[in-house]
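Dear support,

I submitted the protein below through the web form. The confirmation email said the job was done, but the results page showed an empty box. After a refresh the structure appeared. I'm attaching both so you can tell me whether what I see now is the final result or a partial one.
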Amino acid sequence: MPDQFAWPLPAGNRLFPGPERERAATDLRQRYEDGKASIRELIALTGRSYGFVYRLLAESGAVFRPRGGDQRSMHHRTALRLPAPARLPR
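What the results page shows now:
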């Protein structure tokens, strides 16, 4: 897919209703689901916000990929390695 869009892209915060929105949503979904672009890359291509791109993908029925990498915090990983606290005798 080319880096150019076949649909008009309003600048800034302007509303994006109607058939143009549907065309844009379909195009972004195809790029995303083909693995050719991440949400962040689509943001860079369109110049729109994360919320806007995510909302268009969701409206079009895109199947979202899981986030990459280990999502557990460093604190959680460290806590997993600690031994269990000793219990006091009764």
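Response: this is the final, complete result; the empty box was a page-load delay. The chain has a mean pLDDT of 77.
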